Amino acid sequence: MSNTRFLTDAQLPFCKGCGHALVAQNTEKALQKLNVNPLDVVLVTDIGCHGIVDKSFLTHTVHGLHGRSSALAAGITAGLNNPGKKVIVFTGDGGATIGMQHLIGGAHLGFDMTVVVHNNMLYGMTGGQPSEFTPCGFKTPTLPEGSTKPGYDICELMVAAGASYVERVIGIGDYSDSLAKAFTAPGFSLVEVMEICPSYGVKSNPGMKLSKLVEDAGWNVKVYADGKGNSFKTPINSEPKSLISDKFEVKPKYSSSIERPFSIMLSGSAGEGVQSAAEFMAKAAIVAGLNSTKKGSYPVTVGVGFSASEVIVSPKQILYTGSPVPDVLIITSTDGLGYARAAAGRMKGGVIYIDETLDAPETGARIVKVPFRERVGAKNSAMYAVFYAVHYEKFYPIEALKDVFLSNKIAEKVNIESLLQF
Amino acid sequence: MHESKKNLAFIDGSRLITEALVRAGADTFVGYPITPANLLYLYASKRFPTMLAAPDEITTLQWMSGFAVAGHVPVTATSYPGYALMVESIGMAAMMELPMVIVLVQRLGPATGTATCGAQGDLNVVYGTMSGGYSIPTFSISNYHDCWELSAKAVHTAIELRTPVVLLTSKEMVMTLQSFDWSNLPEIQPKKVKHYKGEGTYLPYKADETLVPDFLPVSQNKHQVRITASTHDTKGILQNVLPEAIENTKRLEQKLRRNIDEYTTYELDEQQGSETLIITYDISSQASREAVVHLREKGKKVSLLVAKTLLPIPQIYVDIANRYTRVVVVEENLTGQLRHLLFGAAGRKGVSGVNGIAKMISPTEIVEEVMRYE
Ligand code: SF4
After folding, report:
1. Among A187, B93, B128, B212, which is disulfide-ready with A231 (CB 3.0 to 4.6 Å)?
2. Which pLDDT does position B215 carry in this prediction?
């Protein structure tokens, strides 16, 4: 056991008789037993009386928000990614209540850290309100009739969540061995230190004995998990590939004779290849020396309902990517018709290619009915419709679209000849 | 034909943003998925040296802060509902002086609104992130070049000023695929957080004339590091309202204001003899640029200011606006948030807005507003 100091000589900042002072002293003793360097320790404190102890520690100290200390510490330990460092969290039962998800999540993922819950069963700093840890019958200044609900059993919760080491201790005397075991356990450990706040807890519950109270609450003072868990390894991708490699290059090969931008809307059903058909159409425009944009619209449930896409092809640079009124509208299904009806209504000219089984929407555009679904089936109807529209609208040579199609895996499954029936 | 072009691709802005963030020095992405920021999350999982999936947005910001304390430069991408959850933690990170970038992809609100519809509704939210009149440096992306350059600038600013930085964008920019030539993108130099090199006691919040204190991560064991979100002195110790501590808090804003010129970036296209200025940012910039082309074709003289550094508002925007009798502020929200920040509730004679929600503002609407007084 070393005699390295982890605490300054200044008096600890707590009310007389507060168990928080013992937590600090036992922490120092445990770290001395483990012979660690104070600057290999990061103490993360929560909000509450215990949280002002950071100034008394000679370790690194980090003091954040109420309830979030365990999440902040998780980030620190994941960022350090070094089991040689000790990341210790001090929190109260209030902070543990607020940040319960961070405790469950931390235990679940196995972050290398130890949480020391200073459980005095109430919020001390703000005047003695009950927390979720307040046991049945325990009185506080704002709950003088006593709690009617049992408090959380954090130890059971942590075991269920997968913590590596879990122990409940009565916060009296020397419990540094328990803390030392937690500090050395791999992965996530938690020690719940049972305390009574002399300023609020004792006054509201005169004569109550801490160990009796813990026993009556049904909380066992024991080791719940013995440190056999795994610790979280921060994933490190040492050779991530650039997102803008030559792989994405599109080489212009053909040319187009269009002199103005065209906006094309493709509207069909989810699962019928609308998005990829539109993407092929826009990509082929680049192969044909044009500029293009493509955006999709679909309900949040991407696998059902309509699926629509807007494409702009232009000989000039495209600035504004909106296209409130399409020049060409392609509708391949009932869902698609439902979605595109408003756009069709706004069209004063242009053309609508629509599956022949559908009723034409109200529009100022010319209607062309085509048996898209009948000829190639529902699954390929959007792709076929795009070939059809490019063939007749002549935005660019159909060869550009063929090239894009043939360079994609889909060409292995869909015979291109079926898409060239005009 | 694109004869002169070399690297033509069909990509979305998310790809450029993610790549630029990493090249500029960000090394960790912590994310919680939300539409329309999902592509950034997806690309980050392939591109960042470290990528962690967090269980929610509060945890996201806390983990990021932890990574920053350990010496990393973290990034996340979210949308308003997630940003709202992050607010308290962003204030914490700013108070702790931790570098990080939050990409905020705007979508239609209020509340969960419509996840798949774009918007420019979050400027006021970002403006009000910090209690007490402090700023989060905020950049806004106006086109693909900005996806690249401003993403890098966001990381560099976060590192140089030791602060969270918001990179504001919207659904259209990060999700729409566009043909783009990336051969003209400038090289991005990676930046590193400046570490304390002294031998004496390290005071984590003692700053030199740059007003930015040197950093030390908790991974080293030579000097003690104290980091705190509560009002603190230069040692990092909680100190109620002690003058030294209050001075330290004031320094958080002063360090931004003092260095504002270095991170102020905007596009100013002034036409001689023009009395009308269009001011815009984010996704309305492209419609505004197109409107300017149409207006000039019609013979109407008009100037354009695209604000890229949004917060704190650079004084130069007000100075430029004051040179014009007519100012039209274009933004996709209900009441004109930038207009309000620039001209206040009192407004100014000759100032009007083109606003709208649930659809992109079109060049035609902008042209009509500019021509309204002709
Ligand atoms: S109020 Fe209670 S918990 Fe807080 S320091 Fe005093 S005794 Fe301890």
Report:
1. A187
2. 98
| Nearest-CA distance B286 → chain A (Å) | 5
Condensed to tens digits (0 to 9), the pLDDT of residues B173-190 reads 999 999 999 988 999 999
How far does A8 lie from chain B, in Å, by closest CA?
Answer: 13
Q: What is the ipTM of this complex?
A: 0.97
Q: Would you tell me which residues 267-326 of chain A have a C-beta closer than 8 angstroms to some C-beta of chain B?
A: 279, 282-283, 285-286, 289-300, 318-322, 324
What value does the mean pLDDT take over residues B227-241? 95
Asked whether A258 and A288 are in contact (CB, 8 A), the reply is no
Pairwise CB contact (< 8 Å): A248 & B11: yes
pLDDT at B2: 44
Residues 6+ apart with CB under 8 A from B59: A71, A74, A101, A102, A105, B32
- Residues A143-152: what's their mean pLDDT? 95
User: Ligand 1 mean position to B225 CA, how many Å?
Assistant: 27
Phi-psi domain of A6 (left: phi exceeds 0; alpha: psi -120 through 50; beta: other): alpha
Provide the sign of the torsion angle of the four alpha carbons B34, B67, A63, B90, taken in this order: negative
* Residue among A387, A261, A353 nearest A312 (CA): A261
E runs forming strands in chain B: 8-11, 28-31, 50-53, 74-78, 100-108, 114-118, 138-140, 164-170, 177-181, 226-228, 266-269, 276-280, 303-307, 309-311, 326-331, 351-355
**Res. A247: pLDDT tops 90:** no
Inform me whether the pLDDT recorded for B231 exceeds 90: yes
The residues with which B169 forms a beta bridge, in sequence order, are B105
A13 lines ligand 1 (CB under 6 A): no
Classify residue A244 by its DSSP letter: S
Q: Are A90 and A44 in contact (CB under 8 A)?
A: yes
What is the Cα–Cα distance from B147 to A184, expressed in whole angstroms? 46
| Residue B280 vs residues A395, B250, B308: alpha-carbon distances, Å | 33, 30, 9
Protein residue whose Cα sits closest to atom 8 of ligand 1: A18
Interchain CB contacts (distance < 8 Å): A and B: 230
The model's pTM: 0.97
| Inter-CA distances, A296 with A266, A282, A322, B44, B251, Å | 9, 12, 12, 22, 46
Would you state the pLDDT for residue A303?
A: 80
Count Cβ atoms below 10 Å from residue B262 Cβ, excluding itself: 12
Amino acid at A391: H
Taking a C-beta distance cutoff of 8 angstroms, is the pair A217, A147 a contact? no
pLDDT at B4 over 60: no
Confidence of residue B373 (pLDDT cuts 50, 70, 90): confident
Do residues B279 and B291 lie in contact, with contact meaning Cβ atoms separated by under 8 Å? no
Report whether A395 contacts A262 (CB < 8 A). yes
User: Is residue B5 scored above 80 in pLDDT?
Assistant: no
Angstrom distance (rounded) from CA B152 to CA B143: 14
H or E element in which residue A293 lies: strand A291-297
Say whether residue A20 is in contact with chain B using an 8 A CB cutoff.
no
Closest CA to A296 of A270, A316, A259: A270
A177-229 per-position pLDDT tens digit: 999 999 999 999 999 999 999 999 999 999 999 999 999 999 999 999 999 99
pLDDT tens per residue, range A7-25? 999 999 999 999 999 999 9
C-alpha A140 to ligand 1 mean position (Å):
13
